[in-house]
């Protein structure tokens, strides 16, 4: 195990406790709905729908690139959990299921790639003020999924932050690749 409880940042515990929704039924319901948006059976159809729009409006290469980046980033976030081996939070009761190691958050990485990156790309398609709103909505949805993982006590805040950095690395790496111009 390369990382563990001893490497938990000093801010993790108070941030986790501040976001935690245990004992608050209304916030708990919201957090459970938001966390479900990061599940594979939700993000895959969304990712396919976004890829379809990109295919129709920006071409095959953009659509396939987006879908592959989302897929590979999601897979990578789950593969790196095992050698890192960071345990799940133990300072609050977990309010949702979570079985594998904690770092990075798979829900957070996947939702940032599917909803966040997808929203940015769809925002470019839409353009203007509406396009910026679409991009903002996608990023906010991804951020809310990340918050839900901390609020439910299944991830440390740094698990979510690390997942977002991993997603950003995949997205920026893909966007930096040379592109063939396609109509």
Structural class: mainly alpha
Q: How many β-strand runs?
A: 0
Mean pLDDT level: 88
Q: What portion of residues is helical?
A: 55-70%
Spatial gap, N to C terminus:
49 Å
Main sheet summary:
none
* Contiguous helical run count: 8
Secondary-structure element sequence?
HHHHHHHH
* Beta-strand percent range: under 5%
Shape: globular
Low-confidence stretches: 1-5
Q: What is the radius of gyration computed over CA atoms, rounded to a whole number of angstroms?
A: 17 Å
Verbal overview:
By secondary structure, the chain is mainly alpha-helical. It contains eight helices and no strands. It has helices at 12-19, 25-36, 40-58, 60-79, 81-84, 106-126, 128-151, 157-176. Helix 3 packs parallel to helix 6 (106-126) and helix 4 runs antiparallel to helix 6 (106-126). The radius of gyration is 17 Å and the shape is globular. The model is unreliable at 1-5 (pLDDT under 50).
Question: What is the gist of this entry?
Answer:
The protein is mainly α. The protein is 70% helix and 0% strand. The longest helix has 24 residues, at 128-151.
